[in-house]
Amino acid sequence: MTKSGSKNNQNDKQEQNREQEMDLDCGEKTAYYNSRCIERVRTDVSDSKRSRLYIKAIIFAIGGNLLLAVIKGILAWISGSSAVFSDAANSLSDALYSIIMGIGLYVSQRPADETHPQGHSQFEPLVSLFIAAAMASAGIAAVWQSIQNFLGQAEPTALGWTSFVMLIAIVVKYIMYYLVSRIGEKVYSPAIQASARDNLVDIISTAIALIGVWGSHFIHPYLDPIAGLVVALWIFKATWEITWENVGYLIGRGADLELTEKIAESAFSVTEVADVHRIVAEYVGPQLRVDMHINVDGDIPLSKAHQIGEDVRNAVERLEEVDLVYVHIEPIGHQGK
């Protein structure tokens, strides 16, 4: 990649970047560069606050899902609805995976040590895969119950309290989704974000189950098991999305082309950078680590070259997606490995 644009514009951009660095509210200071405090990405939330937010998310997940599972299970037993049974099974699996999520989040927050120099953050995608597995089991249970109702004698599902409680469940799930998703965004946690997405799936699946109950009563009894199958398909869809995303985190998926270009542009915002190449950006767990080479004037002092490298690192780490950056400095014309 080569530098483009006028030198004056680059000087203005660099000055603006440095002013932004000086204006940063460091809060709980976690990284220092050139005697200035630059907060690392996703460290604007202190460890103690992060722990409190994790605990809140876990309480919301376990408490809300367990309550809904019990209520829906009782209604499924009374009404005999396969759609309601599918929804109850999904809520029960949600409560169980929430416990696993709590354990996993605790482990993932352990600090780096000699055996894990990159920290334990890779445990979070593993927790997300447990969530996906729990969702898949709920989908299988939904398919099984719906098939049983198809093979048996389907009867109209009674309305009454069933519809009322399912409407309440939709409201409760939306509140859970809103609260948990906000926490997931604040702490940038794949596990909590997966839990929030599962809450959204529950909202849609409960709404489909409710349609099945009404359809069974007013149109045809077989609409209830059909709704149960639709719920299962929706669960499988969400399971695949969560699995695909988090497997990528575990195997070190690289950044896409658009993000790679943003990384290069950030490096070029430092005027002394003549060229940027060999950008390797990959996920270590949910965190994006960047290794990059830059070319600078080979005749400048070592201290100046070091300063340029620090400025490049600061510029790239300001990108929301990036966690850590390693910069290799080379003289102009050299393309090292």
Structural topology:
Blueprint lengths: L6 H17 L8 E2 L2 E2 L9 H33 L2 H27 L14 H29 L9 H27 L2 H29 L4 H28 L6 H12 L6 E10 L2 E10 L5 H16 L4 E10 L6
Parallel strand pairs: 4-5
Antiparallel strand pairs: 1-2, 3-4
Helix pairs in contact: 2-3, 2-5, 3-4, 3-6, 3-7, 4-6, 4-7, 5-6, 6-7, 8-9
Structure commentary:
- The chain has helices at 7-23, 47-79, 82-108, 123-151, 161-187, 190-218, 223-250, 257-268, 302-317; strands at residues 32-33, 36-37, 275-284, 287-296, 322-331.
- α6 packs antiparallel against α7 (223-250).
- It is built from 9 helices and 5 strands; from the N terminus they run αββαααααααββαβ.
- The strands form 2 sheets. A 3-stranded mixed beta sheet has the order 3-4-5. It has a two-stranded antiparallel sheet with strand order 1-2.
- It is elongated, with a radius of gyration of 26 Å.
- α9 (302-317) links the parallel β4 (287-296) and β5 (322-331).
- The relative contact order is 0.13.
- Mean pLDDT is 76; it is low at 4-44.
- It is mainly alpha-helical and 337 residues long.
- Helix content is 65%, strand content 10%.
- The chain folds into 2 domains: 7-37 and 254-331, 2-Layer Sandwich (Alpha-Beta Plaits), CATH 3.30.70; 47-250, Cation efflux protein transmembrane domain (Alpha-lytic protease prodomain-like), CATH 1.20.1510.
